[in-house]
Amino acid sequence: MASRPQLGKSQRTRLRIAETAHALFERHGFDAVTMEQIAIEADVVRGTLYNHFPVKEAVLVEWMHLRLAEDLAPLIGQVMTQRSFSARISTLLDASALWWEQHRQYAAAYLRFRFQQLKQGEAGQTSSDMAAAYAALIAKAQEVDEVRVDESAIRLANYLHFLILYALMTWLESPTASLRDELAHAFEFFMLGAKPR
Which residues form the HTH tetR-type domain (predicted)? Predict the structure, then answer.
């Protein structure tokens, strides 16, 4: 990951912990790594670690969101060259499928933790940039009447985001499922309700 000199001390600590934890997960497997190992390797006291992350799944989510933000930035330019909303989202979802296939070993733990956050009303605490990206693309589509305008772009983006999470769960449950196909199906279903009225 690129260096981020503009980050404050707390953010640098979170970044160091997340990157250290990821290296441990890669070396030993996610399930085998403990919070104590993460604290030792990241050179932080346990209290500091737990102050930033209550469980190792939270550390994983932090790392994945940082990685996703870095990988998403150059993709947005490619997405915006597409002429229609459907083509833009399809380009984004195809890239997402490849990204998740590269990180499949973490997908189940990621999804479990994200849904646990929703259950506890904490979803915004470790948010990825994907929902914001969907909202921006939907808002642009609303301007040219490709997507209905009687719902906010943010609300529609949340619907799309949850359909995509469901597609990920389906893919994880079936070893023969194609994530690209599951995401395309989720988007097709979204568009049934999102078309202009």
Answer: 11-71
pLDDT tens by residue, 148-193: 999 999 999 999 999 999 999 999 999 899 999 999 999 999 999 9
CATH of 57-194, one of 1.10.357.10, 1.10.443.10, 3.20.20.150, 3.40.50.2300: 1.10.357.10
Ranges of beta strands (E only) in the chain are: none
Burial of 195 (0-12, 13-18, 19+ CB in 10 A): exposed
pTM score, two decimals?
0.83
Q: Which fold, 7-53?
A: Arc Repressor Mutant, subunit A (1.10.10)
Would residue 147 be called left, alpha or beta, if left means φ above 0 and alpha means ψ between -120 and 50 degrees? beta
CA dist 82 → 46, 87, 149 (Å): 48, 6, 21
Please write the tens of the pLDDT for every residue from 88-117: 999 999 999 999 999 999 999 999 998 887
Given a contact cutoff of 8 angstroms between Cβ atoms, the answer to whether 89 and 83 are in contact is: no
Q: How far apart are CA 162 and CA 60, in angstroms?
A: 20
d(CA 97, CA 110): 15
Residue-wise DSSP of 90-108: HHHHHHHHHHHHHTHHHHH
